[in-house]
Structures are given as C-alpha cells and as structure tokens.
Design brief:
The complex is a heterodimer of chains A (about 325) and B (about 260).
Chain A: E1 2-7, E2 9-10, E3 13-14, H1 17-28, E4 34-41, H2 44-50, E5 56-61, H3 70-84, E6 88-92, H4 95-108, E7 112-122, E8 125-132, E9 137-144, E10 147-151, E11 169-172, H5 175-179, E12 183-189, E13 203-207, H6 217-227, E14 230-233, H7 235-239, E15 260-264, H8 270-276, E16 282-285, E17 299-301, H9 305-317
Parallel strand pairs in A: 1-4, 1-6, 4-5, 5-11, 6-10, 7-10, 13-14, 13-15, 15-16, 16-17
Antiparallel strand pairs in A: 2-3, 7-8, 8-9
Helix pairs in contact in A: 3-4, 6-9
Chain B: E1 2-11, E2 33-35, H1 37-53, E3 56-62, H2 66-76, E4 80-85, H3 94-107, E5 112-116, H4 127-135, E6 139-149, E7 152-158, E8 164-170, E9 173-177, H5 189-195, E10 200-204, E11 215-220, E12 229-230, H6 235-248, H7 253-258
Parallel strand pairs in B: 1-3, 1-5, 3-4, 4-10, 5-9, 6-9
Antiparallel strand pairs in B: 1-2, 6-7, 7-8
Helix pairs in contact in B: 2-5, 3-4
The structure holds flavin-adenine dinucleotide.
Flavin-adenine dinucleotide (FAD) sits at the interface of chains A and B.
C-alpha cells in the first residue's frame, strides 16, 4: 500500500501538523508499504530537514512564493497522485486542506472522509472515526481504498523530525502551475503581536457566544482582571466585533497553552479545541451538559455563566482572611 | 454578475442530538433545523456584492425549513429563490448535492457560486471544492472579504494565528465563505411579509455521480466528560469549589497580586 501524506509550510517554516500527517500514514503502514510526503511551497529545505519519517518525498519547490494558493497546491498534488497511484491520500484539515481534499476526491472520484480522528486498517478497507456536528457525534465508517482522508490537526502525535536522505527526494516543477494559476496571492497580513500575545499568557478567560452580547463582555473582562488573566474569545465573539481578532483562540486564531483556561459559554467545537486543549487547567462553564468542551475540561460546571461570574468575582474580590 | 448562493438547513447543534435507532444517523424527528451559519454569511456576501456593483442573486435552499429561509433570502435581496427537494430524513451531504449545484450554476449562467465554508453534515467533503472541481472553476475556502475587482475578484482568506491572505482570482469561481465582509443583516417583519409573495421555484436533486464515500457503521456520542470532574449546576457551590481549585493550583488572585 502506498500513502501520500500532504504537508504544508509558510515562509521558511513547515506547519507542525505536517509531521502529524506523516505519523498518521505511518500508523497504518505495514512492512513493505510506502509513505510518501508531498510538499509544495517555499519551505522545501525545512521539509527536507524534518520529513525523515517518510520513505520518500515529492517536492514542488516554490522559492519566492511565501504561500502557495490551494488551487495550485491541488493541481501539483493531482499530478503526483496520477504519477504515484497511491491507495490513500492524507490531507490536513487546514485552511489549505479545506480546498484540497474535496478537489482531489472530486477529480479522482475517490471516497473522502473529513474531520478524521482515528484510522485503522482492516485488509483492503479502513475503519475511520470522523467527527460530525461540531464534535458532538463520532461516526465510525468503513472506507474502501483508494481514498482521501482529511485529518484533524492534533489527532495524531507528530512524527519525530529528522532529515530525509537526499536520494529519496524527488523535485517536481512548480513554475508552470504557479504561472498559469487562476488564483494569485497578492498579500499576506501577519498581525502585530506586540499588543496582545495570548500564546504566552499564563491565564486566559475565554468567552463564547453564550455571553450573548457585547455589553456582557465587560463582566467577563472584570473577572479576568481579578484573576490576572487575558480576555479571549471564540470565533463568533470576534466575528461580531466584540473582541479584537488577536484575542481569538482556535484554528484561525491563536494556539494557547496557559496554566488556566476558563471557558465561559464556549461549546467546544473542534476548531476551538485545536487552539486550547493542551492548557494545563481547563475549567468550562456551559449550561449544555453535552457541550463538547466538557470532553477536554478538567472541571466542568453546568450553571449559567452570569451567575457563576458574579459568585466567583465576589469571592475573589473579598479581602483575604475575611 | 450572476451569483448563486447555496443555503443548507442543518440540525441545530446547540440542541440535543439523539442517535437514530439503527445507530447510523441522528434522530431527525424532533430536531430543530436552522440555516447553516456559514451559508448565512455566504448569502450576506452575495447581497453585499449586489449592492456594491450590481448582480443577480439566485438562492437555492435544501432541507427542512427551506421555504422559510428562501423568503428570508428574498427579503434580504435575492432575486430568485429555488427549493431543492431533499431526500426525506437524510443528512445533507455536500458530496451528494454538488452535482445539482453545478448544474444549477450552468443553468443560471452563474459567474460566482457562494456557499458556507462547511456545514456540520459535510463529513464526506465540503461543497465549494467539490463544485469548483466539477466545474473546473477556481475555488477558495475560508473567505472573510470579497470585492469585485474588474473582471475578477479580490478575496481575503483566514489562515491560522490571525494571518490573512489576499488573492486575486478570475471568474467564474466558487467561494466557501467563512465570514461575510459585514455581519448578516436583520430583516424586518414587514419586509418578510412582502417577500412571502416571492414565488419559490422547485428543483429535484440530480444523481451525485460519485460512489458512496463510506458506509457509516455506527454513530456514537463521544465519551462524556473525559476524566474531568463535574462541579454541578449550582453557581454558588461551583464558585466555592473554584476558589479552592484555583488556590490549590497556585492561581488565586491574591497569589498573583503578591508576585
Ligand atoms: C475553518 C474554520 C476555522 C475556525 N476557527 C475557529 C477559531 O479559531 N476559534 C473558534 O472558536 N472557532 C473557530 N471556528 C468556528 C467553530 O466551528 C465554532 O463555530 C465556534 O467555535 C463556536 O463558538 P462558540 O462555542 O462560542 O459558540 P456556540 O457553538 O454557539 O456555543 C455557545 C455555547 O454557549 C452555551 N451557553 C449559552 N448561554 C449560556 C449561559 N448563559 N451560560 C452558560 N453557557 C451558555 C451554549 O450551551 C453553547 O454551548 C472555525 C470554523 C471553521 C470552519
């Protein structure tokens, strides 16, 4: 069996989930199987220095393009798939992967499962566990090969980075695909982390849509101040303009690992968990006892968040020794 | 510009999801269905493009409550609305409906297809890349800004860690919208009533043209709670416990003040 593990990078760095895709492929590989890492982008050197867990690597080196649009990535991958005839293509659930996975599935006609957490091999088929309904339901599915899987970041432990032997690297031409692309990158905006850097915060109070409205953010902000914590938000809170973008935690926000993460009215969608599930101490308050945030919380409470914030602020504000 | 917007009705995942008796689906009988949030943003983006530079917007809806949502779409500015006949009690798989969306786009001479970046039922793949690949049109997912720019589009996409990437792309194209350039607008009751007169077209689903992606052997709810401790639902009790938990972990407010 041959597996292609899709990997990514921006600027001169590889994305950490690239090593997870290689590990996921390795986890189903038997003796004699082949794991081929596919990389398209500018960080070809970094990829070669890290992807030693793969048996081979196909590289579309796009020197000078900080980021390859998914359309171009998918086209290059398509060529590799045609040439290699793999049994399995693993694509990360990333901004790029969202466009790549179904594109390849549509053009090959192969099965596709998304939001995959577990892969097991049973002879010629795979048993795959995928998330549905914002992580509230798990689907165990039987998938025939060849197939495409879009794998959740964080579902597999990273392969140990090591250099890959130069003789195992095959370069493919990226230039033609980049030049003829219908989608061209014109700008990358990287935020200025000088104001707020949640990634180094020791304590975070995160509000979700359960906070209800903009005015109520202040209540949570006051609690954060008492706790010496940074205030953060889930995506809808930031989308509504109630908190600045730099305070978003999750897939398209920041990945944080504080000593304390207090989640108020956050459901715990996979895209949110991706940003915070490694925090040391997670306390979740949500009126829905089935909210997936409780699957990662160390302590969970199902009371109204406003009641809790009021009671907790009261107690923490009281002078010591009262 | 002709824009086609796709509106999918999905189970309200804030509500309780029960598994069906055969364990292969969720029990849809008592569920509330609502418009996929990302599709709502796609609709808004379509209307914003129409207001900015003129466009004809066709909205296609599928699933329980489609008619109601199409009236809302008309009230917000959609010019034509079509209800797609879904299979009864089946989840709305983007892989299955992609062929119909592609055919409708051809039929309406669409230059641009807008849909939400994902839905909670698209475990077999996302709509924008499926339709894009089937039509061989470029597609970008995860957009939070779309501007018509001459013969093409200027589109901003969200990446991780707050990084935003802007692309220029040619039309025709497909976009998987994450967030509209402006928050979806509110429609007044009077506008809704007026729009309720808009005739709703009907169309049937075409065969998907794809093999089935997988056989769902079993759906299950994730193990509840993990190893976490349940502090209950009494705010006063919870607050008492948390004061202790924070103190034990060296996380009290006072502990911090002394540092
Ligand atoms: C490509 C992509 C990237 C994404 N990136 C991110 C990201 O970076 N960060 C992110 O957060 N999301 C991200 N998302 C969105 C994610 O899928 C969810 O939609 C989002 O996390 C939901 O936010 P929420 O939990 O605040 O809201 P909801 O899911 O609406 O949850 C609100 C919760 O509040 C609870 N609640 C309501 N009232 C109260 C009350 N009074 N007291 C207590 N609890 C209450 C409810 O029970 C509910 O569980 C992304 C999605 C996509 C497709």
């Amino acid at each position: 069996m041959k597996m292609i593990a899709c990997t990514e990078g921006r600027s001169d760095k590889i994305e950490a989930f690239s090593l997870e895709m290689i590990a996921a492929a390795r986890s189903v590989a038997a003796a004699g199987d082949e794991v081929v890492a596919f990389f398209a982008g500018q960080a070809a050197k970094a990829a070669a220095a890290s992807f030693g867990a793969a048996d081979r690597m196909i590289v579309a080196d796009a020197a000078g393009s900080d980021l390859i649009p998914a359309e171009t990535y998918a086209r290059l991958l398509r060529d590799a798939v045609t040439a290699e005839q793999p049994d399995l293509v693993l694509v990360p659930y990333s901004a790029n992967g969202l466009d790549v996975a179904a594109d390849i599935a549509a053009r090959t006609g192969w099965p596709l499962l998304s939001y995959v957490n577990e892969i097991k091999r049973d002879g010629e088929t795979l048993t795959v566990v995928a998330q549905m309904y914002g992580g509230k339901v798990l689907a165990e599915c039987v998938v025939k090969l060849p197939a495409v899987l879009m794998v959740n970041p964080g579902a597999f432990a990273e392969a140990v980075p090591s250099p890959i032997d130069a003789t195992k690297i095959q370069q493919i031409d990226a230039k033609t695909a980049i030049e003829s692309a219908k989608v061209k990158m014109v700008a990358i905006d990287v935020p200025d982390y000088a104001d707020v850097d949640l990634t180094t915060a020791e304590r975070i109070v995160c509000v979700g849509r359960g906070i209800g409205d903009e005015a109520s953010i202040d209540i949570a902000r006051d609690l954060a101040t008492i706790l010496g914590a940074e205030i953060a938000g889930s995506r809808p809170v930031v989308d509504n303009g109630w908190l600045p973008k730099l305070r978003q935690v999750g897939k398209s926000g920041q990945k944080v690992k504080p000593k304390l993460y207090l989640a108020l009215g956050v459901s715990g969608a996979p895209e949110h968990l991706e940003g915070m599930s490694h925090a040391d101490l997670i306390i979740a308050v949500n009126t829905d006892p089935k909210a997936p945030i409780f699957n990662v919380a160390h302590y969970g409470a199902t009371c109204d968040l406003f009641d809790l914030v009021a009671s907790l602020s009261d107690r923490l504000q009281a002078p010591p020794g009262r | 510009m002709n824009i086609l917007v796709v509106l999918r009705m999905i189970p309200d995942s804030a509500g309780e999801l029960q598994l069906a008796e055969d364990g292969r689906g969720i029990d849809r009988e008592w569920l509330d269905f609502q418009l996929n949030d990302f599709d709502d943003h796609a609709l808004e983006e379509a209307i914003l493009l129409k207001e900015a530079g003129g466009a004809t917007v066709t909205a296609v809806a599928i699933g329980e409550g489609a008619n109601r949502v199409l009236q809302m779409a008309a009230a917000r500015g959609a010019d034509e609305v079509i209800a797609l006949q879904a299979e009864d009690d089946a989840m709305i798989s983007s892989r299955t409906i992609a062929a119909t969306i592609a055919a409708t786009a051809r039929d309406k001479s669409a230059d641009l297809i807008l849909c939400g970046v994902q839905s909670t039922e698209d475990v077999f793949g996302q709509l924008a890349p499926y339709v894009g690949a089937m039509l061989d049109w470029p597609h970008v997912s995860g957009t939070n800004r779309v501007v018509a720019d001459g013969a093409g589009l200027r589109v901003t996409q969200e990446r991780g860690a707050g990084v935003a990437v802007t692309y220029e792309m040619t039309l025709p194209a497909v976009l998987g919208v994450q967030t509209a350039s402006k928050a979806p607008r509110y429609v007044s009751g009077s506008k809704l009533r007026e729009a309720s007169k808009t005739p709703i077209g009907r169309a049937a689903l075409e065969p998907s043209g794809f093999e089935r992606s997988a056989e769902i052997r079993e759906l299950r709810l994730p193990a509840q709670g993990g190893s976490g401790e349940d502090l209950g639902n009494d705010a006063e009790n919870v607050a008492d416990r948390l004061v202790t938990i924070l103190a034990v972990n060296g996380l009290t407010a006072n502990g911090l003040a002394r540092k």
